[in-house]
Amino acid sequence: MSRRALIVVDYLNDFAHPEGALTAGAPAQAIDETVRRAVEAFHGRGDVVVFASDAHTPDDPEFALWPPHAVKGTWGQEIYGTTGELARSLRGRKGVYFVDKTKYDAFFRTDLEDILRAEGVNSVYLAGINTSICVMATAQGAYFRGFRVYVLRDAVADMSREAHDFALRHMEAIFRAELVDTESA
Hints:
- This protein is an alpha/beta fold.
- The chain has seven helices and six strands.
- It has one domain: Rossmann fold (3-Layer(aba) Sandwich), CATH 3.40.50.850.
- The radius of gyration is 15 Å and the shape is globular.
């Protein structure tokens, strides 16, 4: 069996909402409808959908590098916008998973790989925030585990255009990620 999975990485209030602790601002807000459409399309076809979200403790060591963000159970850790509304409506549905993570790479010390293997997934499609941090780290994690990697270039955003563009080129060159638009995925 060969299946696909959409992994929505850190599309959270703290990274997208104008009042989020580490907001990527307008670029993050602008992709909400595109991310939501991707979730609808993948779920509608019976593909796996994973929402991989930062879920920190209040004393997380990462807060030495970044301001406190995405603390588990807070508004900042909730999935943003219309994508969040859809995610909440899909909770408990077949093929839809919610994975809490504490590092940039959604595979690091999570059950993401086990979920994908159990579902027969061999290709992962990435959407979310930040292209140059958690999306790129998750692309690397997927590549290292032998998954074919695709990045939905119209469904990722970053705090800076320069970092975003670099990350897309890097994932394409180093992890052999194929950059695709949501409509063609």
